[in-house]
Design a protein that fits this description.
about 10% strand; three-stranded parallel sheet; 3 strands; about 30% helix; alpha/beta; about 270 residues
Length: about 270
């Protein structure tokens, strides 16, 4: 699924996914570099996308070549966080979460392909999804966008009822375009008539089909909401976000701590 017009195989065998390869071949180096200055690492990772990056080689494609994300320095350069993505108080809590747990647990995901693939192969109906699915795509995401390439082909083949909404944003779409992201989900939910007469109980209460929201990451929804650190409210995500007639989908004013006690992941 690598776009060879941007990433010739001889120069970039893993394309934009080279950073992923580096975790599998140099895990300790990758984690140590990220942990060297956690605040600077997080500030450098969480940057907004730009249209100028589209069609160009991503820095993620040269991680192995330069000996790590940060090259010979082996740590992030001093970088100020972007308050448009992380309000200062939230960013401080995010940093504290990584100081407590480090990047090792979240980066370990990259080293478990065999287990993840084996688990995926146990999915009913070969992994095909019959329920409605929404994919919110970041047009400027140089790693995961499905615009102008074939990365979305497996998803299209697996989803019987797929809707795609593209938003001009980069890799951190839920943070970069909070309002547009929420509106895309609301519009999609209102466009669907979900069957609430099914016998299966719905996990949010009542009965009915649970729709799938996939937020542009090929490895699953991987929502930035879960990345907000321990005890950080979901900024820009008001209670009742997933409002829908009846008990089908209803959000609660949660915090990231209530979803996960582990250090949030911010490795891509």
């Amino acid at each position: 699924m690598v776009d060879r017009t941007i990433y010739p195989a001889g120069q970039y065998p893993d394309g934009q996914w080279d950073y992923y390869r580096f975790y599998t071949t140099h895990f300790e180096t990758a984690v140590n570099d990220l942990n060297a200055d956690q605040a600077a690492t997080l500030a450098s990772i969480y940057r907004s996308g730009t249209p100028d990056a589209v069609g160009k080689v991503s820095p993620s494609a040269t991680v192995t070549r330069q000996g790590g994300r940060f090259g010979a320095a082996h740590q992030a350069s001093p970088t100020q966080p972007d308050p448009a993505l992380w309000p200062p108080a939230d960013f401080d809590v995010l940093v504290q979460a990584f100081k407590a747990h480090g990047f090792g647990p979240s980066c370990a995901w990259y080293t478990n392909d065999d287990a993840n693939i084996a688990y995926a192969r146990t999915a009913p109906d070969g992994g095909r999804l019959s329920q409605p699915v929404l994919f919110v795509n970041g047009e400027w995401d140089v790693i995961c966008t499905i615009t102008g390439n074939r990365q979305g082909d497996p998803m299209r083949a697996a989803c019987a009822d797929l809707a795609v909404v593209s938003i001009p944003a980069g890799h951190w779409l839920p943070l970069e375009r909070k309002t547009e992201h929420i509106q895309a989900i609301r519009t999609w939910l209102r466009s669907k008539t979900f069957n609430r007469e099914r016998d299966e109980p719905h996990p949010a209460g009542g009965r009915g089909i649970l729709p799938t929201l996939s937020m542009r990451r090929t490895r699953g929804s991987c929502s930035a909401h879960r990345r907000s650190g321990e005890g950080v409210p979901f900024r820009g995500l008001p209670a009742g976000l997933f409002e829908h007639p009846g008990p089908l989908v209803r959000s609660r004013p949660e915090t990231a701590a209530s979803l996960s006690g582990r250090s949030p992941s911010a490795c891509t």
